[in-house]
Every structure is written in structure tokens, then in C-alpha cells.
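Next comes a single protein record:
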Amino acid sequence: MEIVLNGEVHAAPDRCTVVELLESLRIDPAKVAVELNGEIVRKAAWAETRVEPGARLEIVQFVGGG
């Protein structure tokens, strides 16, 4: 299915959850925040939250530094 990920059209597994999407992208879930269709998704809900075709996601990675 097609989704919009960080402003770009991207292919994703059909009807995947947020966790499954992160796994398919090889993104460490411990280091990101996820917004789905304009709303932040709590980490506790990632396993139950389905990503539908055409969904708009923003995935922001935390970067440490000093």
C-alpha cells in the first residue's frame, strides 16, 4: 500500500501496525516518535494502531548530543 512518510510517498506492508511499519523500515522504536494523520500516537498504542492506505505519517528520530 502507499502512504506518505515524512512528506514522501512510500510503499508499506498492507494494513500494518505502527510497530510493523517501523520494523519494515528498520527503525529502532526506542528512538522515535510517531505522528499519524496529524495526531501523535502513544508508544503504548503502536501495536494496535493500524496504518491505512494513504495515511500520512511523520517519524521523528531522537538525536543525542552535547
Remarks:
- The radius of gyration is 11 Å.
- Residues 18-24 form the longest helix (7 residues).
